[in-house]
Amino acid sequence: MIYYLNFTVSILIILACFYIIYLVFKRNKKIIVKGHDDIFTIALIMFFVIIIFPITQTITLMEIVRNICIYTFLFSTFAIKRGISEKGFEKVFFTVPWSTIEEIEVSICQTAKFQVVCNTGNFHFKLIFNNIQLKRVLWELDKYHKNIKIEKALQDLLIKEGKQRQTL
């Protein structure tokens, strides 16, 4: 019984991997500005998956196949681009349409990165971008949405960058 359950789970995960391949070819072309998810969340998910589905010598061959399929699925999600497209805010497996976004907050995340948080009322969706992409991201966000809050430090960074270009 467990053998068939593991076999079924493996088949479903392989089908999900084909869906990821579809997303890579279809949706990756539509991403205008590429961002990425928070590494802490990804690492936490990977940690728990490795703990829950270990590959050891004490498990059966079908369980090993199932676990390898799960690892393949998780690592293949890194091939799916996240970012901003004409349709909306692109996350791993779904798109947050521009029409559902109520507010966008842009703030500093790390030394050379900033985060964009889209609020839809009940949910918050976050992507992280490099500071080099700041003008492009703000330009794209402004094209699709008008309710954008920008942190003061990022505004100062834009002004400073503009002054440096004028002196050159």
TrEMBL record:
<keyword id="KW-0812">Transmembrane</keyword>
<keyword id="KW-1133">Transmembrane helix</keyword>
<feature type="transmembrane region" description="Helical">
    <location>
        <begin position="37"/>
        <end position="55"/>
    </location>
</feature>
<keyword id="KW-0472">Membrane</keyword>
<feature type="transmembrane region" description="Helical">
    <location>
        <begin position="6"/>
        <end position="25"/>
    </location>
</feature>
<protein>
    <recommendedName>
        <fullName>DUF5673 domain-containing protein</fullName>
    </recommendedName>
</protein>
